[in-house]
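Can you please make up a protein's amino acid sequence together with its fold in token form to help me picture the idea?
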Amino acid sequence: MTYQKLAKLYDFLMEDAPYDQWVKFTELYIKKDVPAKQIKILDLGCGTGQVTCRLAEKGYQLTGVDLSEDMLVEAASHAMKDNLNIQWIKQDITQLEGLNHYDLIVSYCDVVNYITDQDKLSATFHHAYQSLSDDGVFLFDVHNMDYVENEMVDQLFSEVYDHLAYIWFCYPGKYAGEMKHELTFFIEEDGKYQRFDEFHHQRTYPLSIYLKLLTEAGFKDVELYTDFQTTPIDDLTVEPLGERLFFACRK
């Protein structure tokens, strides 16, 4: 499937995604004594801008970055409809440049899991660190290793809607935590169903790897949460349970 078709379908397929919970989690780290219009937030891998726009609606200054021009077109369209002033930038977040002095950087909904090379993941963390203001915070989530190994790989998912259907097979890669997704979509166009295929590659790492790379990037304080919980995990030496891990990394 082309990115253009995926961008058009993305919001429909993700309409039940917990965007409001990502926004709520983000606001845990926004300084309450600073006017919203003075808070600068950078959304890495913003996609169609669902989280970006929700944060902008609250008065924060938002910049959305994504590698897909088609996703950015959809995001800009959403922002325009709601009269939101958001800067949209096409960049590879593993090679981020020219973006500085942000109070918060966020990257949600599997974005970091799409960085399957450890060196590129390290580079992403370094770039995020450089783009933050002093005492700024980088927030991101990833699939938990236990969830990937026991709930995702070797599974078949499917869904049928009035105008489309899909079959999604998730199979393991070479490494623990690595997933390869083969998706086949059947989309109604002018009374006929057209088939499109899509391949996605994701990887999650043990908690110790994320902590090591974040420390090497310069982050001095890292808090860990699971599944939108608001109380951080005390013991960072044990792999936690849950579907998603949330990292809050302070510069």
